[in-house]
């Protein structure tokens, strides 16, 4: 991709009209057109890429169901639909779109869309100080169940890797019905270049094999430790935390509460039973609810392969907090896009819709929006801005 559309699309924040189409915006439809089309060539009336791109624009505008997506597509000017590769006379039914999405290759779709987001995010790397090593990027790994997809055989569960700074999904895999997230972790990481990344994960993924895989791929890990690693947790609790100095303290207020976080670090003893562990971390979180006046104190233990001095204490504390950006992404999908209320259940369709939501949120974040609801209102009110993603103008 010779240049990034983000510079152009960032003007949407102030709704600045473009004087000419951006050169690269058509590549999104091309990316989606690379997904294998399961339909027979005979009777195929429209290309897959433009159809998926217009479905994405509908999601970008706040569409939360197949019916709403098809209404958005039908609402576009017939001439624009024809230029995008959809005949102006076609009226797409929600059931037809659902059957198509159900037959798509979910892995191929996620690979195409995640690679596209990764390329856009890489075009805007974090600022660095001259003569210093580039900062390490946090990549959060966690799973989400699509509750509305429940059938007699179970529900669709997706495992994703999300950048802390941009909330862009760089990789996603569906967990097999009779398996769990642990087995899906290895193929998820295998699809990524881990150099320069710190993989953060909750206690479920604090597994020795995961640690070895990450370090072997030139990455680092930061894992939470809980009772599923009882021996390791017991060793961590036994470290001399009372004698350890306070390495970082934050005091934040928001969402009706005050939260004080105190972090201490111990250089790990050689006999700590976990591969490549270099430092142990204790975080005490004191949270006071302003409405009820109730105060809760929680102690969290973590381990990391990062050697002492690789990053500052403040940066390490930020990585720990940054892991919860993936929970924020899940919250947006549930609240703004009503993902759990979506009753699509057939084949790959639930996964494809989740991927479209990931793609929409990633684009919104990279463009510069901080309020997802405001962004969806904007693209609903200004469809021409959304059409620029396809290189189309009104």
Question: Can you characterise this structure?
Answer:
The structure is a single chain. The protein is an alpha+beta fold. Helix content is 38%, strand content 21%. The chain has helices at residues 6-9, 27-33, 48-60, 66-75, 78-83, 94-103, 106-122, 181-190, 208-216, 230-237, 313-322, 325-335, 349-367, 372-381, 383-387; strands spanning 137-151, 154-163, 169-174, 197-201, 220-225, 246-254, 257-267, 279-289, 295-304. The chain has a nine-stranded mixed β-sheet, with helices on both faces. Strand 2 (154-163) and strand 3 (169-174) form a beta hairpin. Helix 3 crosses helix 13 (349-367). The protein is elongated and about 75 Å long. The two termini are 25 Å apart. Residues 16-26 have low confidence and may be disordered.
Key terms for this structure?
alpha+beta; 15 helices; 9 strands; nine-stranded mixed beta sheet; elongated; 394 residues
Task: Give a summary of the structure in a few sentences.
The protein has 394 residues and is an alpha+beta fold. It has helices spanning 6-9, 27-33, 48-60, 66-75, 78-83, 94-103, 106-122, 181-190, 208-216, 230-237, 313-322, 325-335, 349-367, 372-381, 383-387, and strands at 137-151, 154-163, 169-174, 197-201, 220-225, 246-254, 257-267, 279-289, 295-304. The chain is built from 15 helices and nine strands.
């Amino acid at each position: 991709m010779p240049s990034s559309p983000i510079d152009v699309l960032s003007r949407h924040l102030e709704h600045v009209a473009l004087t000419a189409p951006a050169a690269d915006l058509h590549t999104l439809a091309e990316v989606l057109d690379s997904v294998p089309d399961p339909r027979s060539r005979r009777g195929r009336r429209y290309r897959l890429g433009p159809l998926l791109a217009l479905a994405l624009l509908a999601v970008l505008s706040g569409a939360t169901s197949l019916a709403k997506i098809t209404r958005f597509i039908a609402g576009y000017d017939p001439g624009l639909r024809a230029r995008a590769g959809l005949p102006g006379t076609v009226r797409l039914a929600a059931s037809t779109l659902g059957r198509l999405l159900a037959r798509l290759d979910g892995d191929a779709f996620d690979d195409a869309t995640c690679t596209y987001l990764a390329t856009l995010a890489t075009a805007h790397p974090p600022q660095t100080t001259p003569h210093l090593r580039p900062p390490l990027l946090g990549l959060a790994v966690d799973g989400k169940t699509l509750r509305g997809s429940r059938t007699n055989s179970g529900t669709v569960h997706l495992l994703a890797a999300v950048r802390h700074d941009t909330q862009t999904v760089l990789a996603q895999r569906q967990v097999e019905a009779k398996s769990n997230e642990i087995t899906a972790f290895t193929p998820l990481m295998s699809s990524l270049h881990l150099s320069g990344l710190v993989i953060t994960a909750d206690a479920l993924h604090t597994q020795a094999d995961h640690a070895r895989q990450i370090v072997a791929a030139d990455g680092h890990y930061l894992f939470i430790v809980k009772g599923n690693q009882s021996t390791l947790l017991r060793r961590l609790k036994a470290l001399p935390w009372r004698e350890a100095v306070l390495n970082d303290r934050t005091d934040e207020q928001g969402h009706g509460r005050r939260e004080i976080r105190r972090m201490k670090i111990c250089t790990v003893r050689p006999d700590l039973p976990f591969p490549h562990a270099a430092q142990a971390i204790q975080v005490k979180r004191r949270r006071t609810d302003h409405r009820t006046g109730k105060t809760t104190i929680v102690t969290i233990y973590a381990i990391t392969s990062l050697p002492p001095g690789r990053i500052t204490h403040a940066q390490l504390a930020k990585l720990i907090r940054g892991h919860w950006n993936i929970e924020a992404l899940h919250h947006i999908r549930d609240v703004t896009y009503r993902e759990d209320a979506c009753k699509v259940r057939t084949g790959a369709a639930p996964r494809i819709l989740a991927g479209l939501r990931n793609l929409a949120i990633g684009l919104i974040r990279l463009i510069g929006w901080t309020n997802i609801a405001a962004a969806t209102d904007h693209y609903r009110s200004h469809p021409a801005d959304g059409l620029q993603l396809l290189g189309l103008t009104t």
